[in-house]
Design a protein that fits this description.
This protein is of the alpha/beta class. The protein is built from 13 helices and 13 strands. The protein has a domain at 4-192 and 228-256 and 297-321: Rossmann fold, CATH 3.40.50.720. The strands form four sheets. The chain has a seven-stranded parallel β-sheet with strand order 3-2-1-4-5-6-11, with helices on both faces. Helix 6 (161-180) links the parallel strand 5 and strand 6 (184-189). Bound molecules: nicotinamide-adenine-dinucleotide (NAD) and thymidine-5'-diphospho-beta-D-xylose (TDX).
Amino acid sequence: MPLKKILVTGGCGFIGTNFIRHTLEKKPYWSILNLDALTYAGNPANLESMPEDMAARYMFVHGDIRDNELLKRLFIKHNFDAVIHFAAESHVDRSILGPEAFVETNVIGTFRLLDASLKHWKAHGRHPEFRFLNVSTDEVYGSLGKTGYFTEKTPYDPSSPYSASKAAADHFVRAYFRTYGLPVLVTNSSNNYGPYQFPEKLIPLMILNIVESRPVPVYGDGKNVRDWLYVIDHCDALIKVLEEGKPGETYNIGGGEERQNIEVIHNLCDILDERLGRAGKNSSRRFIQFVTDRPGHDRRYAIDSSKLNGELGWKPEHSFEDALEATVDWYLRHNEWIKSVKTGEYRKWIEKNYHTR
Ligand code: NAD
Ligand code: TDX
């Protein structure tokens, strides 16, 4: 099997880290170059301890996807067979308080990466095997009411600056297929959880706050629904789409595990009560505080993954209950990792987002 050379962007973030570790293990004939700007969300230490045979097929470049010259050099030097694009500003609350970085990275960065990919693809005789996979989100579809599911045909209706920027990026990616024929793929996935997730997102933030006996801030009435997808199931879906997806197509990826936020928080409290020996009036549930809602807060997300299941045979392998417990245990075992991400910037963010709620 010839070695396949993949450019991964944003590989030092949550999903990228899991993707690189999982893929290098599962695909011994793939090599990965990870291009990451190391924003607050990027942690190169995530990829430092890997078995030798995996480390030998991994390379890290510290750089920005908006840097045209760097992209050109990397494509010429490494002649990539595929690009899998994770790099993004990814937190909805940050997009509300500072949207410009989202336009810069998610829109302009995606555009520059697409353009560099197109030049490379043309220079190599429009190789039919080349792929550009854009990792996107279900948030581009807006909000559902009590019933229904997002399909690949649901019109885009983003609510936050984050989802608007991801929607714009998706449109550019599809335009590069229709206008220039670049073999692109788009995936829209639901909320991921698992190891290495930055503790600004619901599940890791709540785990840390419960462990540290700090307030657990629930936005609004806590009844907003998310469809939870274990990150390793997401990574397997991405590999499937990269290998077998049809250029120009979009695939929704969902965990099929809808939960209200308050249910997730109750689950976390129960797991941690058991792990930390808390019970009765000492239960972790005493830390729950209902706080001011997120503006433009989408009420419900739920994904119909039947296209991916029917055409490519993917379905999630992990149940929410088991994978949530595994995730809690990962955070309990990785104190050093937690310390390393709780920098001054992190503390400032927590102060900025929560002190007035
Ligand atoms: P993350 O915030 O954990 O990681 C983002 C990574 O991108 C970081 O390593 C960061 O340093 C890097 N980065 C940011 N700006 C960059 C730039 N200009 N140039 C190069 N690198 C840059 O994000 P995540 O949760 O791992 O999400 C990865 C992708 O998946 C994103 O595109 C996100 O929109 C999408 N997604 C995430 C979820 C989820 O639940 N986390 C769900 C659906 C889709
Ligand atoms: O402190 C909190 N309290 C709270 O009630 C936080 C951080 C969140 N929430 C709620 C808001 C959402 O309804 O929990 C839910 C999940 O929130 P986030 O973890 O911020 O995720 P979400 O806004 O749903 O977006 C996530 O999934 C889709 C990722 O951050 C995106 O990158 C991805 O595209």
